[in-house]
UniProtKB/TrEMBL annotation:
Domain Beta-lactamase-like ARB-00930-like C-terminal, chain residue ranges per copy: 440-589
Entry keywords, A to Z: Signal
Species the sequence originates in: Podospora australis
Residue ranges annotated for the Beta-lactamase-related domain, each copy included: 94-413
Pfam families (alphabetical): ARB_00930_C, Beta-lactamase
Signal peptide: 1-16
Name of this protein: D-alanyl-D-alanine-carboxypeptidase/endopeptidase AmpH
Amino acid sequence: MRSSPLLLLGAALSQAAPNCPPLGPAFQKPTSLLSDPIIKDALANLTSIFSARDNDNSASVLANSTSWSIEVFSTNPDSPTLWEWHHTAPELAVSNTTGVKKVDGNTVYRLGSLTKVFTVLTWLVQDGMAKWNDPITNYVPELREAAERARREKDPVRNIPWDEVTIGALAGQMSGAIRDYGLMGEMTQQYDQSDAVALGFPPLDSSDKTLPPCGAWPLCNRTEFFQGLLQAYPSYAPFTTPAYTNTGYQILAYALESIKGDKKFGDMMQDSVLNRLGLNHTYYVYANESVGVVPGNASDAGWYWQLGDENPAGNMYSSTTDLSTLGRSILSSTLLPPSLSQSWLKPLAFTSELYAGLSTPWGVRRIPHPLYSPSTAKRVVDSFNKAGRIGYYSSLMTLLPDYDIGFSILIAGPAIPGNTNFNLADILGRVLLPALERSARAQTSNIFAGTYTDPNRNSSLRLTTDAQRPGLGIENWVSNNTDMQAISVALSVGYNPIQGSIRLYPTGLETVRQDGSKKVAFKAVYEDIGLPARPYEENMFSTDCGTWVSFTGVTYGTHALDQFVFELDKSGKVASLESLALRSVMRRQSSS
Ligand SMILES: *[C@@H]1O[C@H](CO)[C@@H](O)[C@H](O)[C@H]1NC(C)=O
Ligand SMILES: *[C@@H]1O[C@H](CO)[C@@H](O)[C@H](O)[C@H]1NC(C)=O
Ligand SMILES: *[C@@H]1O[C@H](CO)[C@@H](O)[C@H](O)[C@H]1NC(C)=O
Ligand SMILES: *[C@@H]1O[C@H](CO)[C@@H](O)[C@H](O)[C@H]1NC(C)=O
Ligand SMILES: *[C@@H]1O[C@H](CO)[C@@H](O)[C@H](O)[C@H]1NC(C)=O
Ligand SMILES: *[C@@H]1O[C@H](CO)[C@@H](O)[C@H](O)[C@H]1NC(C)=O
Ligand SMILES: *[C@@H]1O[C@H](CO)[C@@H](O)[C@H](O)[C@H]1NC(C)=O
Ligand SMILES: *[C@@H]1O[C@H](CO)[C@@H](O)[C@H](O)[C@H]1NC(C)=O
Ligand SMILES: *[C@@H]1O[C@H](CO)[C@@H](O)[C@H](O)[C@H]1NC(C)=O
C-alpha cells in the first residue's frame, strides 16, 4: 500500500490538491464564545477598530454626521450578544432632533429592503413552501387576466406570461417583471416634467396612460398598481436571470392575503413573527419618531414616508436588538421546522458575481475562508445577507450558519457614504471569520482529538487537527491488525493514493438522550491530496473538489465506511468513536 518514491517526487513538483471538505461547518460550532480567548482577542480588536472609526470623518465614513448600531449575535445561550457598538453622530447629539439623542440597541432605524426578510418569514410561518411552485395567477385575479392576454397576443416582448411566474419566482427575484411601479426611480414622480424635459426626455401628455397617476404621492391603490404594472414591458421571461423587483413582494402579500382568507398582510406579520419573537421595537408601518434616530427633521429623513401596498418590500423599522432576535430565531429555527429553514438558506439562483447567489430574499455571498490557502483547502463559508436603503437610512443583516452567528447593522445619516453597510460587514468578517474558525478548531480538538482504541482487538486511530486544514485528521488507523489508513483511502478513491488524507467533518446529526448524553455523527472524506491541483484558471470543467459525489461510496454490509459516530457522556466528554462499517467501537484513551 505504499506509494512509490517516484510518484511522490512528481507530486512535489506541482502544487498538491487541496482538501475538499463538504459544504458546511468544518468543525463543531464553537460555544462559550465570550470566555474563549481567541474570540475575546478578536472582539478586543473590533473595539479598537471601531473606536478609531468613531472619529473618522473622512469621505468614506463621515462619522460626524452618520450614526450606526451594530450587533454581532449568536444562538449560543451563553452569549446571545457577542459584541455591540453604537455610534451617535456628534451632529445628531447637538441637533434639535425629534428622535433619540443617543443611539443604542433599542434605537429604531428604518430598514428599507431588509423588510423582505420579515415578509418571506411571515409567508413561511403562515404557509410553508408548499405553494412555492404554484403560479401566482392561482391567487391574484388581476394577473390571471394578464396571463390570458399574453397567451392571446403571443407577444413575449410586450407581455409577461404571468401563469408561468411562481410564488418562488417572485420571492427569489426571478419573475422578470419591473422593479417598482410609480415609486423609486420613476422620474415623473420624482421631478417636474419640465426638469425631465430639460434632461432630454420628451414631454408626456397628461392623458398618457403610461404616466403614473400615483406612486410616491399619492400612493397607488391595488387597482391603479395593476393597471400600471401591466403596461410595463418585461425585463426577461420568468426564470431567465435574477432581476430584483419590489413589485414582486407587493404581489406576494396580495397572494398570501387571498390564501389566508383576506387577513391583512401586516396583521399576519404581527401575529406570526413580531409578537411571537417579542419584537417590541419593530414596526411594519409608522414607528413614532421618539423611539428612532432621526437625523435632520423627520420629513428630510423620510421617517414617516410609507410605501403603501409596497410596504412588504421595504417599509419597516427595527432596532439591532430586535434584528438579532430575528436572526437567532432563523438560525435556530424557532418559528419553522428545521428542514424548512435549511431549505430557505440555500441558493435558488446564481448571479454573474462568481462568489454570489440569491435566495428569498437573501443575497448569498460565498466567502473563501481567509484562514486557508487555496492550496490546502477549499473551505467556503456561505453567508446570507439582506441589505436595505431608504431615506436617511441603510441596513444589513448577515447570517453565518457555519458558526450560528450573525450581524445586525443599522445606519442613519443625511449623507451615508455609499456601501457603508457592506463596508461594516467586511470589517467584522475580516476579524471574526479567522477567529471563529480557530476557536471552532481549538474547541473541536479539545473535545474530540486523541487516541482511540478497541480493547478487544488491535484496532486504533488518532484524531488530530492541523492549522492549515479543516476538520479532524484521522491518523495511524489500524483495524484488527491491518493498516486501515491506507486501505480505506485506496478503496474510496479507487487506486493506491500518492498521499492519502482522511478528515472528519460534523454532519449536524445529533441524538440527545434524556440524561443529556448524546450520539454525534461525523462524515469522513477520503482523498488523494498528492494529485496535482486543478486551479479554476486552467481548468474549465475539471475540479479537485467533488467530495459530495463520493459520500457513502464504500459500504460494508450496508453501513458506510465514511460514517463515524461519537458517543458523548452527559458531561459532554467523548467516550468512544464507532466506525459503522467496521462495527468497531474505539474508546478514547487520551487527548494526545
Ligand atoms: C488582533 O490584533 C492583533 C494586533 O493587530 C493581531 O496580532 C491579532 O492577530 C488580532 N487578533 C484577531 C483575533 O484578529
Ligand atoms: C463635527 O460636528 C460637530 C458638532 O456639530 C462640529 O462642532 C465639528 O466641527 C464637526 N467636525 C467636523 C470635522 O466636521
Ligand atoms: C435648536 O433649537 C434652538 C431653540 O429653538 C435654536 O436656538 C437652535 O439654533 C437650534 N439648533 C439647531 C442646530 O437647529
Ligand atoms: C383606486 O383609485 C382610483 C383613482 O383614484 C379610484 O377610482 C378607485 O376607486 C380606487 N380603488 C380602490 C379599490 O380603492
Ligand atoms: C413586548 O411587549 C409585550 C407587551 O407589552 C411584553 O409582554 C413583552 O415582554 C415584551 N417583549 C420584550 C422582548 O420586551
Ligand atoms: C409619539 O410619541 C410622543 C411621546 O410618546 C407622543 O406625544 C406623540 O403624540 C406620538 N406621535 C405620534 C405621531 O404618534
Ligand atoms: C426640514 O428641514 C428642511 C431643511 O433641511 C426644511 O427646508 C424643511 O422645511 C423642514 N421641514 C419641516 C417639516 O420642518
Ligand atoms: C480479526 O482478523 C482475524 C483474521 O485476521 C479474523 O479471524 C477475525 O474474525 C477478525 N476479527 C474481527 C472482530 O474483525
Ligand atoms: C497492530 O497492527 C499493526 C498494523 O498491522 C501492526 O503494525 C502492529 O504491530 C499491531 N500491534 C499489535 C500489538 O499486534
